[in-house]
Specification:
conserved putative lor/sdh protein from methanococcus maripaludis s2 fold; alpha+beta; 6-stranded antiparallel β-barrel; OB fold (Dihydrolipoamide Acetyltransferase, E2P); 4 domains; 371 residues; 17% helix
């Protein structure tokens, strides 16, 4: 077999140079135009929210001191009563008779002792007889006081001034010392107790002011003064109880009402950047910062977020400028061209961290405009 002749192909110069160019690599791209701004380092603010319940500053459930039949109910639910004012009277006929009998015994013992003293100097009576007469008089007086106390117990009185609640006692009912008569509350000042996470234990001290909002009137915000805190942390829920006091001069609030409680605590300082600067990828979130005219990828963790600003934690430098516009076009190590820096107007951005679950120490992050 005769071999085919060898064929030679001729290439034009432009085509040959293009092929060589493909082998050596693509020509460098022009720098990507971006907008960047300085990184700000600001203190976080921890906003803790909780649900609190109100109770009267002084409150008591009233019970009879003794058993008996009700002869008079002398109050209506909601009445304001003064300390010592009668509320319920029980049948007291026997107790009244006991007082009268004790009074007679006191008079007899007093008269007998008086006769003894008149003849004491004559020698007709001994010293021991006089002492026995004094003892008899003292015993009769004690018996009278006991009878008077038993009589007084037949009238149930208000232990302090306040508003009385409902009662299920009617005239003719028989009651004993375990029968509830009514509830009385001194509600000129209310206590609002709420649970706070362990993380803010050192931030709440007597005299500090927190904001409370009654769920019955969401448009109203009240300054509540911290009165005291519980002496220990709950091992189950990892929180503690805080007691605050709120005024109630207008008597618009009631014990048992629920309140939304909010207070703020200063946190750690962290870098804060615009939310649009965050880039999400398969390995999480990151930023692009400008270093030596190039875009540098910096992984970050978002710790707080609100109203377009976020706190981040990562390997950032104070001298870095973060890319906020054009960030989707750049790659790590790519040359960039700054178009303009975003103006901040000299205003700081305050970022707040919000606690969506007051019974944990992991509040959600937040940011708000400051001064």
């Amino acid at each position: 077999m005769i071999p085919s002749p060898v064929r030679f192909l001729a290439f034009s110069a432009p085509l040959f140079m293009a092929a060589c160019s493909d082998v050596e690599g693509e020509p460098e791209r022009d720098p990507i135009p971006v907008v960047a701004q300085d990184i700000r380092v600001l203190p976080e603010q921890l906003d803790v929210e909780a649900i609190g319940s109100a109770r009267a500053a002084t409150s008591a459930e009233i019970f009879p001191e003794t058993a008996g039949r009700v002869v008079s109910v002398m109050f209506t639910a909601g009445d304001f009563v003064r300390r010592g004012q009668p509320l319920v009277r029980l049948d007291a006929r026997q107790e009244q008779l006991a007082v009268e009998a004790a009074q007679v015994q006191v008079r007899e013992a007093d008269q007998l002792l008086g006769r003894y003293r008149r003849i004491e100097d004559t020698g007709a009576i001994s010293e021991s007889q006089i002492e026995a007469g004094e003892t008899a008089l003292a015993s009769a007086r004690v018996a009278l006081q006991q009878a008077q106390t038993a009589l007084a117990d037949r009238t149930i009185r208000a232990p302090f001034s306040g508003n009385v609640g409902l009662t299920e006692i009617d005239t003719g009912d028989r009651v004993n010392d375990s029968t509830p008569i009514t509830q009385i509350d001194q509600r000129g000042t209310l206590y609002v107790d709420f649970p706070a996470p362990e993380a803010v234990f050192n931030a709440l001290r007597p005299g500090q002011i927190v904001q409370v909002t009654p769920f019955s009137d969401p448009s109203r915000t009240i300054d509540a003064r911290v009165v005291t805190t519980d002496s220990r942390i709950s091992q189950d829920s990892r929180d503690f109880i805080v007691r605050t006091a709120i005024p109630n001069e207008a008597d618009r609030l009631r014990p048992g009402m629920s309140f939304r409680v909010v207070f703020t605590r200063a946190g750690d300082t962290r870098p804060v950047v615009p939310e649009e600067a965050i880039v999400w990828g398969g390995e999480g979130s990151h930023l692009f910062v400008v270093r030596d005219g190039k875009a540098v990828r910096v992984p970050v963790t978002i710790t707080a977020r609100r109203e377009g600003a976020v706190f981040v934690d990562g390997g950032l430098r104070r001298t870095d400028r973060v890319i906020v516009e054009g960030v989707q076009k750049v790659r790590d190590g790519q040359d960039i061209r700054l178009v303009s820096g975003r103006a901040t107007g000299g205003q700081d951005v305050q970022v707040r961290q919000s606690d969506t679950d007051a019974r944990t120490s992991r509040p959600t992050a937040a940011a708000a405009d400051g001064e």
